[in-house]
Amino acid sequence: MSTSAPALEVDRLTSGYGEAMVIHDVSVTVPAGQIVAILGKNGMGKSTLLKTVMGFLPASKGHVRVGGEDVTNLTPYRIARRAIAYSPQDQAIFQDLTVDENLRLGLGMQTDYARGLERVSGFFPFLAQRRRQRAGTLSGGEQKMLLVARALLSRPRLMLVDEISEGLQPSVIQRLADVLRGEREALGLGILLIEQNVRFALKVADRFAVLKRGEIVDSGSATESGIEDRVNEHLTV
Amino acid sequence: MPDQLLDVLTTAAILYIVAVGLLIVLGVLKIINFAHGGFLTLGGYASLIVSQLHWNPWLAEPVALVAGTVLGAAVERIIVRPLYSRPLDAILATWGLSIVVVQVITIAFGRGVQFVRSPIEGAIPLLGTSYSLYRLVLLGAAVVLALAIGAVMHGTRLGLVARAVIMNEGLARGLGINSELVRFVTFSVGSGLASLAGALITPLLSVDPLMGVPWLLNAFMLVLVSGTSLISLAVAAFVLGGAQVLISSYGNPVLGGLTIVVLAALILRVRPLGFARG
Amino acid sequence: MVAILGVMALAAVAAGPYLLDTYSVNILVRSFLYGCIAIALDILWGFAGVLSFGQSAFFAIGAYGCGLAFVHLGLSWETAIAGLLGGAVLAAIVAAFVGWLAFGHGVSELYVSVVTLVLTVVVVQILYSGGDFTGSSSGLSGFDTFDIEIETWFWITGAALVLSAALGWILVRSDVGRLLVAIRDNEQRCSYFGISGSGIKILVLVFSAVVTSLAGYGYAAYTDVVAPDLGGFQFGTELVIWVALGGRGTLIGPAVAAVVIDFISAYLSGSLPFIWQLFIGLLFILVIVLMPQGLGGAIASLCRRLWPWPMDSPGVARLAAVRADRIAREHAAPAIELRGVARRYGSLRVLEDISFVARQGELVSLVGPNGAGKTTLIRCISDGHERSAGQVAIQGHDIGRLPPERCARLGIGRKFQTPNVFDSLSVAESLRIARARLEPPSPWRRADEIHLPEAALRVVRATGLDRSLTTTVRHLSHGTKQALELAMVLAMEPRLLLLDEPTAGLTKPERTLIGAILVDLVANHDLCILIIEHDFEFVREISSRIIVLHQGRLVLDGNVEDVVSSELVRTIYVGEQHALRETGA
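ok -> structure tokens follow
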């Protein structure tokens, strides 16, 4: 596993449903240890992009590389095993399993679950106390935190996060942002963040790209001044 | 009265043993394995072979289990896998397999009814009445089986992974779980359990090539009513099996035979998800 | 064409007894009856999509109708007819009951197979326990029956088979036949056209049950024996196997398969009964896995490729305009009235406290971020079962718990977010189905003219659909399917249009055209249109009013200028949580 290769490289990817292509010629790179945000309104192709990267949708053109390795069109479970943590938008946790069971499923091999649990409980203390609770009974914010904890448990090198800030309180969003940025340093983790919430995304990310009608229309560093207005230009109208 | 209670319990136990393999296959693969009756018959004839070879009659169970599991593995790969996206066709194809199994057995053993001696004979005094020991053994077997499956489902990695696939296969795959392997193992085990059930019930009744059919129907209805919950299956087996026993003794044995299927059909109409939650 | 083949078949039947030996003739009398049952089952399963394992039950009812009449009432014309009608009526009643059980709201499609299977078990048990009346396990035999020669029986059942095939063929080629296929492929879409799929399926089940019971009557009258396992599910599943092998949905395939397999089985039942059954079982598995369309279906597609069969396309349909006479000026009641509508899933609240009124002549756009509940709201308006609380009234009628087909009949036309069409029908046939409630389809003809209202015609002509009337919908592009669905919904002549992202996947000129059509419908035809859209430019151009949903609540409802310039809307769309403003950038 080469550490200099980008965590994720999406190379001129085109895919969609049946005959309707939703994303066209999309190229995005997530360097190792960086957070890249994909911004866009609904129906613009963000979830489609994620599903194609994870192998749930077949790519009709283009390539997906993880850590330098071409994973285009592999079956999802094989892709997931390449140290990728996938947090989908809906139905991302098993409602009827306990917190503990949900976390365990994040670890492919049963290596040192105890140590991993200790580490992620450091980020979200409530987890250690509520291990036996059914995940479906947690609040919305707690469920998202469980999601991130599960993703981080396996020490992935790439995280794909789909609209995690939706419907959350500001304090929870702040916590998530801090944890993600922190782990990014600690693990050299690359994160692809799909978001509608521009302000949150730009706070967390290093780089951004705007997806409109299935194409990347703008990209750059997220820390420049005036970025928020520039992005909003694309999204309103 | 105690006789009745024991009858209800042992009948429920037998139904549970027969249906549990069908339930786990439905839960994980989301299809109904209509060859379940065929596997049951296979188990019965394994028992017959063991008795004809004069082996220890308790060997019938492991032989049946192994035979069923191996055959189930082959069936999953060849017949079931291509039909994942066509569940109604999977029912038809497994029904075809059932026919094949029955015909092969008929060609090999003939059509007649045959008997296998019970590994344990006689009765013991219990609750003020004398009751068949073998039936009580089956009750014990059902309990052991239920506990074992429960332990696997809730205590092992395999069980956790299987439950994840049952609840949300897409998410499970996204987390790195090889759901195809899980389906393969589940189907093989489910078929093995069907054969095991066949071997267990043979001493009580008899073997003939068509023995699997009424059991398939009853198991099928019980499973539909239970959804994907093992506990619901135990409850359904108790309630519907109990109803069958009561109606057979106090009413009409013919009606008794119909109880499970008719009651289940009515329950399903009112609550399409059966007893299971939500 | 049908007539020619029919006459040829009759001629073959007439010649039969002179060419075949007595044993064969004897067998074929029975096989022909099975062929009739197979045809009825194919119409039920292959065309209407109802997998019934219980046709044997109806067969037994018909057979015992004959047996019981002759045994207990003696042989005469009156008792013969009584037995015939008695069996048919009982079969019809049982079928209606089963249909009522199986085709209700929210019942899974597996259930009908379950219930028909259970039916066979119940029927057999009833027959077993009938004592002397039904003859119990040995059944009834040796009763006085019609004194007819074997050859004559051959001609009778052979002619019955040819007649069934011919009538069946005409039925499935007609508009009603296409309607059955539409219900099989997409019952939901049919219900939103006001067509009651369950009602029609019950009718088809009853019809197939009656035909099967008549065959049973013939069987009993000929063989002079009736036994309980005539009704058992062994025979019931065997029938399904024959239809599957012959090719479901081909009509002739199942008939041929039934006749051939029964004929061969009879010959082999002496020598190799089990190996033959084994072979059939293996063949069945093979066909299901590898060739689900059956041998007949495979042959049919092969033939179609070699010789384009003229019978397939009975003339291209023409489109014609319908008189636009539905401008009702008189309406006191608003088109839509919602009060306190909510939709909850457990503790998850998708919609909460939605109330508004929309009238004829308004074009209301429904906007809001993903997950705001827009599609759910449309569902609550068009389906009485959907909402958790609140009232919905359409044109003054409270929809209560009415299913979609009843709501559609109140004048609602709904277009779905992803194109919801009939994949295996042609464009023309799809439009015909959309008109089915207003112009009931014929069971023997295919209409060569399709009447469409002006708006639908415009959509069809502008998007080129009028040049692809015979194209199968499956082969259309995504955008064209969108246009087709819109045209179908317009063809219903709705008073209220619910459109869910109608322009997704369309080109700019197509979008402009659709926009113009919608504006015209509202202005000149007095429709009320509720449209979900993400394209803000489109919304601005065509709407008279905008409603904004956010996190399940109605946050803004006003005219275009007010809403577009509102701060709240910008906030919602940019996704800024209002409290984050305080934490600073």
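The radius of gyration of chain C is 29 Å.
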